[in-house]
Amino acid sequence: MSTQEYFDQGELVAVLTAQPLDRTLDYKAPEGGCFLGAFVEVPLGPRKVLGVVWGPGQGGFDLSKARSVIRVLEVAPMREEMRVFLGKVADYTLTPMPAMLRLATRAPGLGDPPSMRKVYRLGNGEPDRMTDARARVLEVLRDYGGLAFTLKELAEQAGVTSSVVKGLVKQGAVREEDSPRDLPYPHLDPDLPGKALTDDQAAAVRKLQAGMRTGDYGTTLLKGVTGSGKTEVYLEAVAETLRMGRQALVLLPEIALTAEFLTRVEARFGARPAEWHSGATMTERRRVWRMVGQGDAQMVIGARSALFLPFRNLGLVVVDEEHDTSYKQEDGVHYSARDMAVLRAAICGARVILASATPSLESWANAEAGKYERLDLTSRFGDAVLPEMKTIDMRAEQMQPGTWVSPSLRQAVRQRIEKGEQSLLFINRRGYAPVTLCRACGQQIACDHCDARMVEHRFLKRLMCHQCGETKPMPEVCPSCQVEGKLAPVGPGIERLAEEAEATFPEAKIAMLSSDLFGSARALKAKIEEIAKGDADIIIGTQLVAKGHNFPKLTLVGVIDADLSLHGADLRAAERTFQLMRQVAGRAGRADKPGQALLQTFQPEHPVIRAILSGDEEGFWKAEAAGRQAAGVPPYGRMAGIVLSGPDVGPVFDIGNAMARNDAPIRQIGAQVFGPAPAPIARIRGRHRVRLLVKAPKGAPIQDALARWIAPLRLKGDIRLAVDIDPQSFY
Ligand code: ADP
Ligand code: ZN
Predict the structure, then answer these.
(1) Does residue 714 sit in the same domain as residue 671?
(2) The whole model's pTM is what?
(3) Which of 505, 507, 546, 633 has the most other CB atoms within 10 Å of its CB?
(4) Number of other CB atoms surrounding residue 658 within 10 Å
(5) 229 CB under 6 A from ligand 1?
């Protein structure tokens, strides 16, 4: 990399753009020159595009033909550590640099000069008459507290036309004001009094803070049972980061979790941090991006892509629920936010805290190997005790056809209702029934575009494909044999379970929690708050409820099908089941009343089920680690998935076969190729999918080998190739 930091006007500079090109482009530095890393606007054909000055120009062409940079944008130049980070992520994930730059500039209007704009807030006036549309506008403003919206955002959020908002402004119910586009975030004060910590917690905090003060990179696995106070502990590490004048980033897996978390941050530091996630408005995103870059946001909480924000002085990254699969992005740039957080911290001398009650085997193994420090919190805070866990042996239960709640579980739920406590029935399947079968011809209704069954959603009154999202009305006649009235649902989804619960407990108040049942993140948050206050006797939920929510009145968790994720070819099936079951069970008994978790299973003797019950976690991890080591799979070996896809299956397979034949670069590093084979989901959105898997010894230069393997390929027509390093799901 070049060490030249500044380019005079007219000097040739190489500019990286987000356009799909395989190289940087040369331009002349503009009037006034420009710094390395500067964000610039450059001409490309007839367009103007965003770019970053990446180094001195390559030259080698007629210089009189070189065009000039149009202007340097008024934002902080990209820091060297960010350029290094993007380059390393690109190398690791085999992603072209323009795609990396897109990831790092996901905020609109970056180049706009600082300016004023109109924003809208709640006013003091009353509208002359209230309409539904007006009420929605006021509700949105109230819901977001003091937040200001642009006209477009407010109208969109409320689902009204802008004239409705303007009408409210005239009457004083909504206030219109001028405001600078991007304001610094309110100051967070690390020295406000925190909670009194338990001895365990205080010891963990001391270690984390000592680590912070070294100013060097280091990763800590913070393992603590649910409710042990991991959040309290890492907030104290955040406090130390802020005291040192550095920035903290907290990654959360689920945006529904952020509401409770924001309140806790505000209680601890006196103000709210910046938020970065898909639910944030465009204006907020732009503000976060700019303020992070100039150091006017001390703390960010966000989804995985927050890792690519231009922090000025990042000192700490917390990855909460680090085992969560949503940290792996599986389209576009395939990256693991957990792993890339460690990489980013190593580059900029920051600390990483990986927090979980059920860490991934990867992190467990890294701690075992001494690469990560490990801190354990072993008991719940206060009087809360861990739930008692038991199986219900489904072979011994008298089940009515078409029902899924066993008599034993029913009785346990009934007891809670009588005591005024809450029960959670957990099933990890959205919709009414996973399969719709024709009783005349035996066919199952499938998606027209995917190799997947359509799932009945009664709530929406439609069939839905969970691969491509396509929906269609529930047909009257079988699409295969045209016989009428023979279509029947098979198996349970969350909606069908709710139906059963309603019939079994007619007096109970039932709440369903599933990601598809709520139009907005806001509605989901509201529902979760309602439930936490006790406004439900029975909660029926998918894995959404397994993630960190706090329901104080919940004392019983019933898992409808503990065997569901045990099977399947996924090398992490056991690990995932173990994590999910223990997370779900952890929802029970978080306040003063003890909790119980009942797991319905047909295989109570299965080693994974036994490990879940026994609570011998270290034993489970050791056995799982030994199994993976013997098989040479992650984290003791490396894998990469290659998916080829196209509209016709033949040509796709031809390329797959050619790759398998010409696998010298792979063999040279001692790795093996499996496939090509139809991917487990062999067609998505009309595209046929063929998969190859590469398995390499740990430490083998797999990216390099893959790059050499793929380089000679000439993909014709509409055939695409996607590489997934360290795949987490195999579909
Ligand atoms: P975890 O993140 O491990 O699930 P939390 O940090 O959310 O645990 O703590 C669980 C509950 O216990 C929270 O309501 C939290 O406020 C409370 N809590 C934990 N530690 C303390 C403490 N030292 N003082 C007061 N409340 C605490
Ligand atoms: Zn589909």
Answers:
(1) yes
(2) 0.84
(3) 546
(4) 13
(5) yes
